[in-house]
Amino acid sequence: MFGQNLSINVANRWLAWLMGVGILMAIRSLVIQTNLTPNLVADWPVEVMATTINLSLEGPHPRVPDSLRLEQEPNMQQSCDQLPAQFQGQTIYGVKLPPHRKAIAFTFDDGPWPNTTPKVLDILQQHQVQATFFVLGSNVAQYPDLLQRVAAAGHAVGNHSWSHRYQNYSSDLAQGEIQQTTDIIEKYTGFKTALFRPPGGYLNNGLVAQAEAQQMVTVLWTVDDTYHGSVETAVQNVLENATSGGIMLMHDGGGDRELTIKALPQIIPALQQQGYQFVTIPQLLDMAATEDRPVTPMDCQYSLGGRHGDYTPAQASSIALIPR
What we know:
- By secondary structure, the protein is of the alpha/beta class.
- The chain has 12 helices and 9 strands.
- Helix 2 packs across helix 3, helix 4 packs parallel to helix 10 and helix 9 crosses helix 10.
- It is globular.
- It starts with a helix and ends in a 7-residue tail after the last helix.
């Protein structure tokens, strides 16, 4: 009898001890979690927090906090690396749009250039116009901050070769001209451009063949800017030759572009009065490829990845740049 009572007492004491230890461990865990959770969340990398938000939300995406926008952008860019299939590996001068759409794309060549590119960007921002900049790799190497400003403003970026030479190129040289420029654009903007414009519009010197081999879209133009004469002449040249689906060639580098700087503030409102919408090249291609869906400021805006969230153009501009 005594032995049985002793065994029961020992068992009860062990059970009580185990329960006590369990309770103490639970309390300790709760205290640690309560004290450390804010610090752990604060120490999370932004990309982890952004990814968590993306995965946990269903339906329309809400406005993303400023602190998360930059790291969320690479996912958004992927939807624009591939331009509409019908244009890949092709050369275009403009596109055909249905009658109910009236859009034109402004493009700027030979930058980035410190004397002109900032002025062009200021004018476009003032009028809330999105454009496409075909940049030289050699200029990007000298002025990467200007390319970053172009991308941060939400403009599309295209490849205009590295050196802007008009010579004939071997396959290897052509590949180097295009690939080096593509690489440096990606280095400073975080996205790989699929747009190419040959210097001088030359189609048969080896560069376009290389661009086609990489399934890039070679973009020419329907309206050229005026290099000489008066501002009135430059404005009239654009207004007389503008067409829906057209592509306007201008320059923000490569020489004295003061005529463009003076004419652009008059060209924009004049075309707006005619009912034109200003779009980037990716937007223009997207419009032509999807005639039943209206374009929006976010539609394949190259570094913005359209159809992803409810960003306003101003918000979109703040998340366009993802260096990597």
